[in-house]
Amino acid sequence: MSELSVNHLLGIKYLNTKDIQLIFETADHFKEVINRPIKKVPSLRDITIANLFFENSTRTKLSFELAEKRLSADVINFSASQSSVKKGETLIDTVNNILSMKVDMVVMRHPNPGAGVFLSQHVDASIINAGDGAHEHPTQALLDSYSIRERLGDVKGKNVVIVGDILHSRVALSNIYALQLQGANVMVCGPKTLLPKYIKDLGVKVETDLLKALNWCDVANMLRVQNERMDISYFPSTREYTQQYGVNKTLLNSLDKEITIMHPGPINRGVEITSDVADSDQAIILDQVQNGVAIRMAVIYLLASKIKH
After folding, report:
1. pTM value surpassing 0.85
2. Whole-number pLDDT of residue 153
3. Domain 12-136+289-304, CATH number (from 3.30.160.60, 3.40.50.1370, 3.40.50.620, 3.20.20.80)
């Protein structure tokens, strides 16, 4: 039985190609499990997992919870927006309190980049980063690549464009790392104001013209405009953004090939993609959601198998 090279999933940048391969093969197995009438496996019956969400998240949290329950783990949910963190308790205090309950694994979303790394150095539990600020969101990138592999057979050699708010997106950074690790060609596309200055250093192509980007790609991953992270206006209006960077059916039909459309959710329908695109056969958005559970089961299972009881 091969095992992961890491004890935590803090970011894609700590993984190697073999790790990704192992996660995907394990997810293939769990995908079969999810489609059975009895969807549970007793794999992690003696493992306790704490979900620590210092930032709101509905989909990621539900996906992790479902994955944990499918594996028969004991789950503690902790939503920091309703807790003593508001009263000034520090991250380390919160975590120590939770660890005194003998937790084996912590799934954490936190607004500060590097929070997961900090935690992994101070507590004796396996840490899964469920998003740290605008930094990384490793399980999202894994499920995105896994979904591409499922639809197109392989990630290697494929042209993938990530469109939209690259600047505020943890999904973009993790995806760039994951796709490059698997040999895909990556392009980012969006208004100049939403492309970080360092982006070229990551070895990705940069394009501000959406039509050119779509003609180049096999897969377009459409990001949401993160209004909640914007303290200043990065483009004149939502309407203008949609005119330049929104994908609709007419635009897709005008391309000389059929491309695959992805979206990490939640979708702003009519902004980055129209409903007829989101609900079309070219979109694999619902597959991404289903694959998210399988990928998170795989990650939790593989990390749990390294925990010494």
Report:
1. yes
2. 96
3. 3.40.50.1370
Contacts of 75 (CB under 8 A, 6+ apart): 48, 49, 50, 51, 65, 68, 69
Q: What is the mean pLDDT of residues 143-157?
A: 98
Range(s) within the chain of domains with CATH label 3.40.50.1370: 12-136+289-304, 138-288
* Residue carrying the six token digits 């095992």: 3
Spatial neighbors of 129 by CB under 8 A, at least 6 apart, are 8, 9, 10, 11, 108, 109, 115, 116, 136, 137, 138
pLDDT of residue 230: 53
Find the helix or strand (DSSP H, E) in which 132 lies. Answer: strand 126-132
Say if residues 149 and 155 touch (Cβ distance below 8 Å). yes
Give per-residue pLDDT as tens, 84-111.
555 556 787 877 887 788 899 999 999 8
Report, at the CATH architecture level, how domain 138-288 is classified: 3-Layer(aba) Sandwich (3.40)
| Whole-angstrom Cα Rg for the chain | 19
Angle, nearest 10°, between helix axes 285-304 and 17-34? Answer: 110
The per-residue pLDDT for range 44-91, each reduced to its tens digit, is 989 999 999 988 888 899 999 999 999 999 999 987 765 555 555 678
**pLDDT at residue 100, rounded to an integer:** 86
- Distance, in Å, from the CA atom of 292 to the CA atom of 171, rounded to the nearest integer, reads 13
Residues 6+ apart with CB under 8 A from 47: 71, 73, 74, 104, 105, 304, 307
Cβ contact 300:73 at 8 Å: yes
Q: Is 292 exposed, middle or buried (0-12, 13-18, 19+ CB in 10 A)?
A: buried
